[in-house]
Amino acid sequence: MGVSQIRVTATDGFGDSVETIFKVGVFNDANGPAIGPNPVKDYLTIRVGAEKDVNIRLFAEHTGRQVFEESGKASIFEPMVVDLRSLAPGRYDAKVVI
Fold first, then answer.
1. What is the pLDDT of residues 2-49, one digit of tens each?
2. Nearest-angstrom CA–CA distance, 70 and 57
């Protein structure tokens, strides 16, 4: 996965110019979403290639009980950011559906 910012400046024969900046990205969806950091302290980030609907559920590792669920949109340029500050420290199993 990579994201770069490109700046293009065009100048005509009279010396007038225009500039634009845009982002380009490379992401192979065949490898699945980019999810991190691991371990999570406060926020989990989910990034995919093209914009997609994302659902994440977390389960307490020791009981298997679902303790968290959130849905949103994610893309390479605007990842889904999940606030996990409300969860107690511990181990959780995650199920991410895209």
1. 788 999 999 999 999 999 999 888 888 888 899 999 999 999 999 998
2. 7
